[in-house]
UniProtKB/TrEMBL annotation:
<dbReference type="Pfam" id="PF00480">
    <property type="entry name" value="ROK"/>
</dbReference>
<dbReference type="InterPro" id="IPR004547">
    <property type="entry name" value="Glucosamine6P_isomerase"/>
</dbReference>
<dbReference type="InterPro" id="IPR000600">
    <property type="entry name" value="ROK"/>
</dbReference>
<keyword id="KW-0119">Carbohydrate metabolism</keyword>
<dbReference type="GO" id="GO:0006043">
    <property type="term" value="P:glucosamine catabolic process"/>
</dbReference>
<dbReference type="InterPro" id="IPR018321">
    <property type="entry name" value="Glucosamine6P_isomerase_CS"/>
</dbReference>
<dbReference type="GO" id="GO:0004342">
    <property type="term" value="F:glucosamine-6-phosphate deaminase activity"/>
</dbReference>
<comment type="function">
    <text>Catalyzes the reversible isomerization-deamination of glucosamine 6-phosphate (GlcN6P) to form fructose 6-phosphate (Fru6P) and ammonium ion.</text>
</comment>
<feature type="active site" description="For ring-opening step">
    <location>
        <position position="136"/>
    </location>
</feature>
<dbReference type="InterPro" id="IPR037171">
    <property type="entry name" value="NagB/RpiA_transferase-like"/>
</dbReference>
<feature type="domain" description="Glucosamine/galactosamine-6-phosphate isomerase">
    <location>
        <begin position="10"/>
        <end position="227"/>
    </location>
</feature>
<dbReference type="GO" id="GO:0006046">
    <property type="term" value="P:N-acetylglucosamine catabolic process"/>
</dbReference>
<dbReference type="GO" id="GO:0042802">
    <property type="term" value="F:identical protein binding"/>
</dbReference>
<dbReference type="GO" id="GO:0005737">
    <property type="term" value="C:cytoplasm"/>
</dbReference>
<dbReference type="InterPro" id="IPR006148">
    <property type="entry name" value="Glc/Gal-6P_isomerase"/>
</dbReference>
<protein>
    <recommendedName>
        <fullName>Glucosamine-6-phosphate deaminase</fullName>
        <ecNumber>3.5.99.6</ecNumber>
    </recommendedName>
</protein>
<comment type="similarity">
    <text>Belongs to the glucosamine/galactosamine-6-phosphate isomerase family. NagB subfamily.</text>
</comment>
Length: 530
């Protein structure tokens, strides 16, 4: 199969019309098969323009339409007789006696189908057949599970097809439940085939065309067996490329994501002197370049801080009530969605990382504070906007004062910052310990595990206390959310089993606990999925 990917519907229609024109110029008495539905309308507009300009003469063409509803009056506005007259036949010079269409008024549909097959054969067969494709992979009205050997026949329409075509009728109940259609076998006898596809709704059907499978469940996949097929589609039908933006206090990571994989990534440094305007301009510039190159029509942003009706406010970034999504949407001409960065990371892990295959996932990120991402039934749960602020869940009612103003917040006991405080206190209380010696030059999350590996009892005591606090918060979250899986992320998670095993034991193995896999890519992938 030959593939032509176009910028948009306009270009797709133009390409298809040019191929039809070339066929008619090369062979003026060509036999053409025309499709119905909304997809080829633009192509028919282009053919009509060519005829009007004197660039196309279709007087020698014989045409056969692909299908017709049954039963339906040929004079009905919704019939394909009227559709083709409006969209093409009334605008070009194909003579009436050379226009062949299935009749929705036929008393005997079987006889009508046999007659149609005979007329195609008498015309010498179809030189070029135009096809659209349904969301379920149907071509013509050959629905899933249609026989490969089927000729022109009466078929029952699927509920998906009836729903898709209801836009042409006053309501879904008026859509005919049957149709007459050229069969797969009839279509296959065409010397050349053009298949048109546009829009995101056709993405899965087009993807099936390029899979390894040939299946009656997606009738269009049978076209792989034909010797001369050209697929013309726009980028929305061909590619699900989207852009994910993960904004952090030190850098902004921007990636193009396709099929849950990052195919291009850029990093922008966030400097202390950057204003809101500077940062947005830098991000927008990179996104504009990526959009142009990859034809990405979806952009998602993960950002730390508070996201509400006033916009984004982030303590470590130059955002104060910033309508970031609206500003970028206007600049780039595409819808931009925004979400908390921890939620984006959780969504990325659930879709493509350690949580793949799970529908209900809780991700706990351990760093300066504690961030949380909650995925319920495969979707981000954010409540009124800030449900993932699990670090400020109180585990000690009269405990340490948190920067949020409350006492006893979880992150004051179980964040990496809290762990460092515990190590500093223990090192001061036990100056002769291995931990105190290891902490002389610098102290971070690794210091504790280094001391433990060297057999330090003081370090082990600190670790046991820390794991107890970490488990206390997770116990509460498990009771409330009942997740299928808990993921631990952040720099300290690199210690893997040194944390996971004792933590699992503390919560009694109620829920599997794993380390997140995607690291810094999780936020990009999750944002791209918004």
């Amino acid at each position: 199969m030959k593939l032509i990917v176009c910028e948009n519907y306009e270009e797709m229609s133009e390409k298809a019309a040019e191929i039809i024109k070339e066929q008619v110029v090369k062979k003026p008495d060509s036999v053409l098969g025309f499709a119905t539905g909304s997809t080829p309308v633009g192509t028919y507009d282009k053919l009509a323009e060519m005829y009007k300009k004197g660039e196309l003469d279709m007087s020698g063409v014989t045409s056969f339409n692909l299908d017709e509803y049954y039963p339906i009056s040929n004079d009905s506005d919704q019939s394909y007789h009227c559709f083709m007259e409006r969209q093409l036949f009334g605008r070009v010079n194909i003579t009436k006696d050379k226009i062949n269409m299935l009749s929705g008024e036929a008393e005997d549909p079987s006889e009508e189908c046999e007659r149609y097959e005979e007329r195609i054969e008498e015309a010498g067969g179809i030189d070029l057949q135009i096809l659209g494709i349904g969301r379920n992979g149907h071509i013509g009205f050959n629905e899933p599970d249609t026989d490969l050997e089927a000729k022109t026949h009466l078929t029952e329409l699927s509920s998906d097809t009836i729903e898709a075509n209801s836009r042409f009728f006053e309501n879904v109940d008026l859509v005919p439940t049957h149709a007459l259609t050229m069969g797969i076998s009839t279509i296959f006898k065409s010397k050349k085939i053009i298949l048109l596809a546009n829009g995101r709704s056709k993405l899965n059907a087009v993807r099936e065309l390029f899979s390894e499978h040939i299946t009656t469940k997606s009738p269009a996949t049978m076209l792989k067996l034909h010797s001369d097929v050209t697929i013309i589609c726009d980028y929305e039908a061909y590619s699900e490329a989207s852009i994910g933006i993960d904004i952090g206090g030190m850098s902004v990571k921007i990636g193009v994501v396709e099929n849950l994989k990052i195919i291009d990534k850029r990093i922008i440094d966030v400097t202390s002197g950057m204003t809101e305007k500077d940062l947005i301009a830098a991000i927008t510039s990179v996104c504009a370049e990526m959009r142009k190159r990859y034809k990405a029509n979806r952009i998602g942003i993960g950002v730390p801080g508070i996201i509400d009706e006033n916009g984004v406010t982030s303590a470590n970034l130059p955002f104060k009530d910033c309508k970031l999504d609206e500003i970028m949407s206007r600049a780039l001409g595409v819808t931009v969605k925004i979400e908390n960065d921890a939620n984006c990371a959780a969504l990325g892990e659930q879709a493509a990382g350690a949580g793949k295959g799970m529908r209900n996932v809780l991700m706990v990120t351990l760093g300066t504070g504690i961030g949380g991402g909650i995925i319920i039934d495969g979707k981000i749960y954010s409540g009124k906007g800030n449900a993932g602020e699990i670090g400020h869940m109180r585990i000690m009612p009269d405990g340490k004062l948190c920067k949020c103003g409350k006492h006893g917040c979880w992150e004051r006991y179980a964040s990496v910052s809290a762990l460092i405080e515990m190590m500093e206190r223990a090192a001061a209380e036990h100056p002769d310990s291995i931990l105190a010696d290891a902490a002389k030059d610098s102290i971070n999350g690794k210091t504790l595990f280094k001391a433990m590996d060297m057999g330090c009892d003081t370090a082990k005591h600190v670790f046991d206390e820390y794991i107890g606090y970490l488990a206390a918060g997770i116990d509460i979250l498990v009771s409330v959310l009942d997740p299928e899986l808990i993921l631990i992320a952040g720099g300290i998670s690199r210690e893997n089993e040194k944390i996971i095993k004792p933590l699992s034991e503390r919560i009694g193995g109620a829920v599997p606990i794993k380390v997140a896999e995607l690291k810094s890519d999780a936020g990009i992938i999750g944002a791209a999925l918004l």
